[in-house]
Write a structure and sequence with these properties.
about 0% strand, mainly alpha, about 120 residues
């Protein structure tokens, strides 16, 4: 008998791991990158309305964005642009409320001074 025949071969690294059928594997949550892509897409829809001068629609879309993506990197931008859109649409009371919300959430935000100025101008 050849000496090689008696040598023990190492077991594959996953030999002791249980086999899980693909259908029994746990379902994963959508990736963070797909959530970010959805947020980016939603933000762009609101921006199109804003750029097109559809102020009321833009304000509604930015409000929806804030509700659906509160932790997005664009949440502060959406809150600010909502204030601007409401101001440009002549919705003073709603603009004041949105400005208070922005300032409460982002007291040291990048646009805090602009929001304060907008809310003071009524």
């Amino acid at each position: 008998v050849a000496p090689e025949a008696h040598e023990a071969k190492p077991a594959p690294a996953d030999a002791d791991a249980p086999h899980i059928a693909p259908s029994a594997a746990p379902k994963l949550h959508p990736s963070a990158s797909s959530a970010a892509a959805t947020a980016d897409s939603d933000f762009e829809v609101a921006m199109r309305a804003f750029r097109g001068g559809s102020w009321s629609q833009a304000a509604q879309l930015f409000a929806a964005f804030e509700a659906q993506h509160p932790n997005s990197r664009r949440s502060e931008d959406a809150a600010y642009l909502r204030v601007v859109a409401l101001q440009r649409s002549g919705q003073s009371a709603q603009m004041q409320a949105a400005a208070r919300t922005y300032l409460a959430r982002y007291p040291n935000g990048f646009r805090a001074k602009e929001v304060q100025a907008l809310s003071a101008s009524k």
